[in-house]
Design goal:
Blueprint (H helix, E strand, L loop, with lengths): L6 E2 L4 E3 L8 E5 L4 E5 L3 E6 L3 E6 L2 E8 L2 H8 L3 E5 L3 H6 L1 E2 L4 E2 L4 E9 L2
Parallel strand pairs: 3-8
Antiparallel strand pairs: 1-2, 2-8, 3-4, 5-6, 6-7, 7-11, 9-10
Length: about 120
């Protein structure tokens, strides 16, 4: 069975198709990428401006606006990819190759911390 393409919900995150559960969450930062397996997921908490996603070995903190939808996607483990926008995309609320104005749910920063 071919792998299904992710669904784009926001310019900054993608979901797996309904009924599909990805094996891991890919967190794409500006200079590095993390693949965190969903079977190591512990909990998530947050609101419209900040979401924390805890795995057994890492804490992912996402800030932005309209993030309640992101928290909902984490709760169902359908979140496939998080993408940290460039500094200019975050600062000027633009997304994409043509730098179009964007007003939907968006991420301004992502941090990934490893537990000791």
């Amino acid at each position: 069975m071919p792998a299904s393409a992710p669904i784009q919900v926001s310019e900054d995150w993608h979901l797996a198709e309904e009924g599909s559960k990805p094996a891991s969450l890919v967190v794409q930062l500006r200079r590095e990428v993390f693949a965190l397996p969903w079977f190591r997921f512990v909990y998530a908490q947050g609101d419209n401006s900040s979401v924390q996603i805890a795995f057994a070995s890492h804490m992912v903190t996402v800030t932005g606006h309209g993030l309640a939808a992101l928290l909902s996607a984490v709760a169902t483990e359908r979140l496939f990819r998080l993408v940290q926008p460039s500094e200019n995309e975050a600062r000027f609320a633009v997304r994409g190759p043509n730098a179009n104005q964007y007003s939907g749910p968006s991420i301004t920063a992502i941090t990934v911390e490893k537990f000791d």
